[in-house]
Amino acid sequence: MNTPPSTLPVLLRHPSVFGLSRITSSLYLSNGVAANNKALLSSNQITTVINVSVEVVNTFYDDIQYVQVPVADTPLSRLCDFFDPIADRIHSVEAQQGRTLLHCAAGVSRSAALCIAYLMKYHAMSLLDAHAWTKSCRPIVRPNSGFWEQLIHYEFKLFGKNSVRMVGSPFGPIPDVYEKEIRIMIPL
User: Fold this and answer.
1) Within 27-161, where are the H helices?
2) Residue 180 has what pLDDT?
3) Considering the entire predicted model, what is its pTM?
4) Known catalytic membership, residue 80
């Protein structure tokens, strides 16, 4: 019996969430396991790995440059301190015809937030569009609420306006892009 693709779990329809998710021609997102897979790194011609975690230990390969961003996945962590330096590094690697892999433990919150910051800075995308693009490439991305607040401030710094705002919810402040999901979860 064949199962229609629409009924397969999202993760099976998007196998890239287990490997490397391509965001641009020179930028990829992944989890920590995929970031330590030499075959995946080689086959995608990764030249720089940026580890956005305190808990994932990288296996170092001679032909790859490594950058450590020691940030915990908590709403109070100051990931914003790394928005410009990491966006600049990704841009620099691209200018040298290289490819960057951004990863954290799961490839959901920290690395996704830095990816979104890069897209805003170097691809002139609004926060709303950068999030939508990143989510279309890696459906499991979901920066924590603190990182959303930092991204909202960063968007204002870059463009002088905001495309996303924080709103109240029974779970605390959330970005308005999640309002529909919350309404579905909470019975009226």
Assistant:
1) 32-35, 38-43, 83-95, 110-123, 127-137, 145-159
2) 75
3) 0.88
4) no
